[in-house]
Design a protein that fits this description.
The structure is a homodimer of 232-residue chains. The first copy, chain A, has 232 residues and is mainly alpha-helical. Chain A folds into two domains: 59 residues, Arc Repressor Mutant, subunit A (Orthogonal Bundle); 147 residues, Tetracycline Repressor, domain 2 (Orthogonal Bundle), CATH 1.10.357. In chain A, 69% of the residues lie in helices and 2% in strands. The radius of gyration of chain A is 22 Å and the shape is elongated. Chain A binds a DNA duplex (30 and 30 nucleotides) through helix 4.
Amino acid sequence: MHLRLKKNSTAVRMKLTSAAQDATDTEKRGRKASKETRRQQLIEATIDSLAKRGYSETTLADVADGAGLSRGIVNFHFESKEKLLIATLQYMADEYAANWGAALDKAGDKAAAQLWALVACDFDRKICTKRKLAAWCAFWGEAKSRPTYQALCGARDVKYQEIFLALCQTLKDEGGYAYEPEGMTLALCASMEGLWLRLMMGDGLTREKAHAAAVEYLLVAFPTHFTREGPK
Amino acid sequence: MHLRLKKNSTAVRMKLTSAAQDATDTEKRGRKASKETRRQQLIEATIDSLAKRGYSETTLADVADGAGLSRGIVNFHFESKEKLLIATLQYMADEYAANWGAALDKAGDKAAAQLWALVACDFDRKICTKRKLAAWCAFWGEAKSRPTYQALCGARDVKYQEIFLALCQTLKDEGGYAYEPEGMTLALCASMEGLWLRLMMGDGLTREKAHAAAVEYLLVAFPTHFTREGPK
DNA sequence: ACATATTTGCTGAACACTCATTCAAAATAT
DNA sequence: ATATTTTGAATGAGTGTTCAGCAAATATGT
């Protein structure tokens, strides 16, 4: 069970919120945490549990313990375990999409630079954690038999793959390459997903090595556009 | 529950096994099935259940029903659910290894032909079924938190990847390519695993298209060795 | 300011249910 | 007759869900 002061904790908390109202948010911990903050906290605990124990052994008790809250809490903030898991997947999908969206914006308007950025951001520190990869993989494992998961995992690609394809097409025209762009794009995207899978399995593969492998692919596919250090 | 005749079913079964002792094995169904046959039967039912319901919803009751046998049967032939699942994964790993082993034998001794065969056999009818892919993926999802699964999923690569690397190395020397062979091999293997993942997800991707994408990769990586139709 | 009422967030014990496992009895094979 | 295989009901541990009640925060009254 988690320890928690009963009577006198009030005074402590009041002092904290008034004296050390430091920085960012008025809502931080204790009762004061807003609904959205709690949901966030529970989602993080869910990712932890998925990474640590896997999908099939993730229990609400474990999530609650991980968040330092009580047993019934999930059914209060989410309606059910199922809803919590869906919200968790949704959160990860949104984060992923936001990440490559931002990378694309920063990349300028040359196609080569954009493709490079898109590949690089998949191996970004923020996204490509063992913890997050394990959570993704846990959902993949269940996706086949759960349409909702499948939709959310797939939504990852709807826009993404279109952009990828368009970029490969552009580079092909620029460089006069001979390949068939659809197959090329598919193989490239699949390669990055496969690298994620291997990173998660953890055969001593590092983020850097995985990224280097993806880059190696870019080099052979688009030799006139890239060097190992980046777009020309 | 599964329906089953009680008293008179014996006669029916006897007639089947004596009159219609058709073809292959003396041991087929009914009591007569040997230990090994029953285990096999239960493993197949397990793969079915993994594919249909996913890892977390696969129950012994479902496996037993799928095999047309009673509830307690798994604990008789396997000691526990855990052991059944491990035996199932072991079976799939063995089948996979046997498949690429055979493909390699048939490919002759030219490195290009061998690599081509190795890539092709991953998309073979026998191996690359939705059913089997879903089962693989179910195990991948749990592998992170289960050393035993991880070992069996990883064993897939121990020899495999060595051979792959050696072949890429050979082709590089023959063709005077400029890439770094480790990264190249890793990206290629990862690409095929990623294609499996996508096949399983089922975005209207077919075995043929997935194979074509892998081939597209081979073409750009080893342009002097391959055409879309095969090794030169 | 202080007291009281109401709302909101949270708790944890109780409940219902699923499911792996056990085992005595039955069916079958040798 | 004995050994082996199979059955299916019983068992018990584990887990998601419910809900009455508690406590903090806020609103309202004096």
